[in-house]
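Today's session is about reading a structure prediction critically. Students often jump straight to the picture, but the first step is always the sequence itself: look for stretches that repeat, for charged clusters, for runs of hydrophobic residues. Only then move on to the predicted structure, which in these notes is written as discrete structure tokens rather than atom positions. Here is the chain we will use throughout the hour.
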Amino acid sequence: MTDLLDSIRAELRTRLDELRPLVREYERLQEAATALADGSPATGKRAGRKHGGSKARRGGSRRAGSRRRASSSSEREVNREKVMALVRERPGITKAELKDAAGLSSTGVAQNLRRMLHRGDVREEALPSGSTGYRLADGRTGPSASGRDGETDY
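Below is the predicted structure for this chain, in token form.
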């Protein structure tokens, strides 16, 4: 009976070893399909990649294990429009509310707000709660004729 179990275990290990690369390929393809379908980064474990990895392979500019990727200009534009629309719809909205409503990271919200403040698209205001809210800058009601907030054609 022990010989039979050992034989079955050996067959299972052999078959698992044969299928492991196919499972990794399946996960990578599924990740790519998800990213192409909704334009967002795929979630979950990256197939075939060791935890941490070598800094030399990634240029050493990010922490080991970081899964951050650069946003494309179209993704940044979509995020900026989300933030601008929410500020327009909900004057006095806070960073935390923007983060939740827009589905962006705290960093993404902060970067967008910093750029909008610099361009004069939005302004900060002290809220009764003691926190900071954001609203469109005075006299602003929506996108300019050029379709880009804060830019005028001279």
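Discussion point for the tutorial: The CA atoms of residues 48 and 139 lie 53 Å apart.
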